[in-house]
Amino acid sequence: MESRSVVDQPRYRAYGRRHLDKLAKMEKLSREQLIALKAVSAVLPFRVNDYVLGELIDWDDIPNDPIYQLTFPQAGMLGRADFLRLQDLVVGGGNDEELLRLAREIQMRMNPNPGGQKLLNVPMVDGEKVPGCQHKYRETVLFFPVQGQSCHAYCTYCFRWAQFVGVKNLRFASRDIDALVRYLGEHDEVTDVLVTGGDPMVMNSRLLRRNIEPLLDPRLSHIRSIRIGTKSLAFWPHRFLTDPDADDLLRLFEQVRASGRQLAFMAHFSHPRELQTAAVQEAVRRILDTGAVIRCQAPLIRHVNDKAEVWAEMWRRQVAMGAIPYYLFVERDTGPKQYFEVSLARTLRIFSNAYREVSGLARTVRGPSMSATPGKVLVDGVTTIHGEKVFVLKMVQGRDPEWANRVFFARFDSQATWLDDLQPAFGEHQFFFDPYIRAMYEGVWQPEWAREAEDTGEELTA
Ligand SMILES: *Cc1c(COP(=O)(O)O)cnc(C)c1O
Ligand code: SF4
Predict the structure, then answer these.
(1) Are 362 and 390 members of one domain?
(2) d(CA 274, CA 166)
(3) To 10 degrees, what angle do helices 344-356 and 308-321 make?
(4) Nearest residue (CA) to ligand 2, atom 1
């Protein structure tokens, strides 16, 4: 048998807030940086691993390095006054209790539950909520297994940050797949199940199989695609190479394919550097060899990837590796948004400049896309109509499928960063979906495909 060196078989090891002193020594962080990290990571989740530290971050370029910004909390992510209070406590060297109490207070002011997602999209079966599921768009059900609620490293911009720091309990995660299977049995309009987290790839293959195999039941023949939303290829490609269950995991992907379904690996890549290591390239090859497809998506984030050349290069590399560019997202309104946010106008410029640089094979990407309450809304362009400068918006995915591919207009606003900041153009008082969304919150409207719950007398917003 071939013997492999330790370097060939890296073992996953996570570093968090309590390893900061050690990390500072390893990577020569200044005393100032260390203090700032201790302060901010009390509020925002922090986790890295040897691969992120050793192969992705360029330590000669911190703090500007994009992967450092992606994974290491920065002073600017908090309000100045909050940061200074935390820093005082760190420098004062008092007990952690006081620091953590202040941290919790700051967390609660940071919109830990964005988007009205909680109330509106919980599916029901046999008069009960299906735990850990979300059914917002007719064809696709999201499933959040409880064992998949962490990640191989944490992104500083993550909109799920609240669950990683324990502000938000895991009401939103599922402990068992049975209720979902029963629900899907009654909903043949659903073609896709998207397993998400956190990152489902933190589960071992046995757990993952327990969550995926039941979906392959012949009675669920209307389920055509299993999607897995994950950043594991970027943060820990060894998951598919040398982790003890790597081969078994790939067998599971093959099993999905053998059932006649697509296994769509929805890979979160934020920067081309994440595609450059030998490990990620080999991992992509192994995943594609199972017959799975890899589709790539990420939000556009200031300090990380707010440059056209970064996206163009990322899409080119993805296509060359056999992966498919899918979505460029606008960052949601949560956590340290002011640190990361880029206006819609600038995001569109970056997207368009990148789009112009690549071949048609990379123009499968859609964006900039906002996952907003009525649906996924693309910022498709800026133009002038009858003397009024407007954003051309397009709903690519709506709560009501009738809304898909519908174009609408908002007054141009150079500062706007989200759909909520926009006003309808041409003197209109509301967007076409506004009355429906209002009625939905009032519990008096649902799209036709979702009306069953109403018919059985269940509350829309239970
Ligand atoms: C993006 C998204 C989906 C999937 O939409 P596609 O356009 O089919 O990729 C499903 N559910 C929710 C809640 C989403 O945000
Ligand atoms: S990998 Fe995804 S879920 Fe995990 S921290 Fe990053 S954005 Fe959040």
Answers:
(1) yes
(2) 28
(3) 50
(4) 231
Q: Decide: pTM greater than 0.90.
A: yes
Cis before 368? omega within 30: yes
Instruction: List, for residues 123-178, the tens digit of each pLDDT value.
Output: 888 888 888 899 999 999 999 998 888 999 999 988 777 777 776 655 556 777 89
Average pLDDT score over the chain:
91
One domain, residues 140 and 86:
no
Ligand 1 close to Cβ of residue 327 (< 6 A): no
Q: What domain range includes position 51? A: 14-107
Phi, psi of 15 (to 5 degrees): -115, 135
Q: Kindly give the number of the ligand 1 atom that is closest to the alpha carbon of 121.
A: 13
Residues framing ligand 2 (Cβ under 6 A)? 151, 154-155, 158, 160, 197-199, 231, 268
Q: Which residues of 261-297 are buried (b: 16+ CB within 10 A; e: fewer)?
A: bbbbbbbbbbbbbbbebebbbebbebbbebebbbbbb
pLDDT of 266 higher than 90: yes
DSSP one-letter code for 240: G
Q: In the chain, what are the helix, strand and coil shares in percent, each to the nearest 5?
A: 45, 20, 40
Q: How many residues are there in the chain?
A: 462
Mean pLDDT for the stretch of residues 316-331: 97
User: Are 32 and 177 part of one and the same domain?
Assistant: no
